[in-house]
């Protein structure tokens, strides 16, 4: 790395270690997103305000698992929010934020970027399934955008959305009832879901892996393997660390990005294809579905699943 770029990146890192400056950076990042959303015709302020004005207590009671203990890694600030994914501010802004972020994937995308991203992913996944899945699990479903998209793609499947944030799940459950969609919402961890073994044909993990420490990602892969029926598929869509966009990004911009994504370094350092194979999947197919994202699809390896007896007892 050029020494001037390295210095500027180190300087940004040091500044972000000072809490008031980190708070200011987060506020600026959020303001920038709001401006971008409004510029593409997405009324961030209005939509978020409308959601915030609801009384969510009944919806939270419907989805929350009160006995759940949050893992430490999840309690960090994420994105522009001091309380990360565990607050109403984040929950009511997830959808408009996704529209704003994905507006920039393609130069002409605008407010349609998010839908185009999801459509492209489902085309890739569908093309690799021999049969329509009967049961689909969306790990890290957030407010349900990825879950509803899966349900639209596989209308005959029973769809489950799992997430760690009761705030996000409450918004998801509310949206589902507005759409008259029947979805099972589960408040739990993707790495230890508590769901029954071998009950899904497709596990989808959309934009979640970059939010996890490396070791947790490996646990999530093993859990996905446990939950899939023999021959079931795992599909993962996330940032592509090998894309030219990240490889050529000025280091101080990357540092700023990392300030809102605490585990990005670990995600960039993880060999996800290798980790999938190590968890009992066939070598995955790789599709660069956008200039900066990748989709990995794989099936449960019949060879490995038979050998998994001591781990879970599943295939004994
Ligand atoms: C960037 S959002 C992805 C949202 C969604 N899949 C979509 O496409 O709109 C990542 C989500 O993963 C969830 N998450 C992060 N770690 C998790 C874990 N260990 N178990 C379950 N959900 C998790 C977060 O709460 C958040 O909702």
Report on this structure:
This protein is of the alpha/beta class. It is 49% helix and 14% strand. It has helices at residues 3-16, 19-39, 44-52, 57-63, 88-102, 113-127, 145-153, 166-179, 214-227, 244-247, 251-260, 264-269, 272-278, 302-306, 309-312; strands at residues 135-139, 158-163, 184-187, 200-206, 228-239, 285-287, 293-299. It has a 7-stranded mixed sheet with strand order 3-2-1-4-5-7-6. Strand 4, helix 9 (214-227) and strand 5 (228-239) form a beta-alpha-beta unit.
Give the CATH H-level superfamily. Answer: Vaccinia Virus protein VP39
Structural class label: alpha/beta
With strands numbered from the N-terminus, the spatial order across the biggest sheet is 3-2-1-4-5-7-6
Query: Which small-molecule ligands are present, each listed once?
Result: S-adenosylmethionine
Shape by Cα distribution: globular
Give a nutshell description of this structure:
With about 325 residues, the protein is α/β, with parallel strands linked by helices.
Q: Key features?
A:
single chain; 316 residues; alpha/beta; Rossmann fold; 7-stranded mixed beta sheet; 7 strands; 49% helix; 14% strand; globular; disordered C terminus; binds S-adenosylmethionine
Secondary structure topology:
Elements: H1 3-16, H2 19-39, H3 44-52, H4 57-63, H5 88-102, H6 113-127, E1 135-139, H7 145-153, E2 158-163, H8 166-179, E3 184-187, E4 200-206, H9 214-227, E5 228-239, H10 244-247, H11 251-260, H12 264-269, H13 272-278, E6 285-287, E7 293-299, H14 302-306, H15 309-312
Parallel strand pairs: 1-2, 1-4, 2-3, 4-5
Antiparallel strand pairs: 5-7, 6-7
Helix pairs in contact: 1-11, 2-5, 3-5, 4-8, 5-6, 6-7
Bound molecules: S-adenosylmethionine.
S-adenosylmethionine is lined by residues 74, 85, 98, 140-142, 145-146, 162-165, 168, 189-191, 206-208, 211-212.
């Amino acid at each position: 790395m050029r020494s001037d770029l390295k210095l500027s990146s180190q300087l940004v890192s040091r500044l972000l270690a000072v809490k008031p400056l980190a708070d200011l950076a987060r506020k600026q990042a959020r303001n920038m997103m709001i401006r971008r959303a409004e510029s593409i015709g997405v009324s961030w302020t209005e939509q978020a305000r409308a959601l915030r004005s609801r009384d969510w207590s009944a919806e939270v009671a419907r989805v929350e698992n009160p006995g759940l203990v949050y893992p430490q890694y999840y309690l960090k600030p994420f994105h522009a929010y001091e309380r990360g994914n565990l607050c109403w501010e984040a929950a009511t802004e997830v959808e408009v934020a996704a529209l704003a972020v994905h507006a920039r994937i393609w130069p002409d995308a605008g407010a349609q970027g998010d839908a185009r991203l999801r459509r492209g992913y489902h085309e890739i996944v569908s093309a690799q399934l021999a049969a329509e899945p009967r049961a689909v699990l969306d790990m890290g479903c957030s407010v349900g955008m990825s879950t509803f998209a899966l349900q639209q793609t596989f209308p005959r499947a029973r769809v489950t959305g799992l997430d760690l944030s009761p705030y996000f799940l409450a918004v998801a459950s509310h949206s589902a009832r507005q759409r008259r969609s029947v979805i099972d919402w589960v408040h739990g961890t993707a790495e230890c879901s508590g769901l029954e073994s071998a009950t899904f044909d497709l596990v989808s993990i959309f934009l979640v892996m970059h939010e996890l420490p490396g070791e947790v990602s490996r646990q999530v892969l093993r859990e996905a393997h446990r939950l899939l029926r023999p021959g079931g598929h795992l599909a993962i869509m996330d940032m592509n660390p090998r894309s030219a966009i990240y490889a050529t990004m000025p280091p101080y911009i990357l540092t700023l990005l990392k300030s809102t994504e605490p585990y990005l370094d670990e995600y960039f350092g993880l060999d996800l294809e290798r980790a999938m194979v190590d968890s009992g999947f066939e070598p995955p197919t790789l599709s660069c579905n956008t200039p900066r994202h990748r989709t990995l699809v794989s099936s449960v390896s019949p060879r490995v699943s038979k050998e998994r007896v001591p781990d879970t007892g599943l295939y004994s």
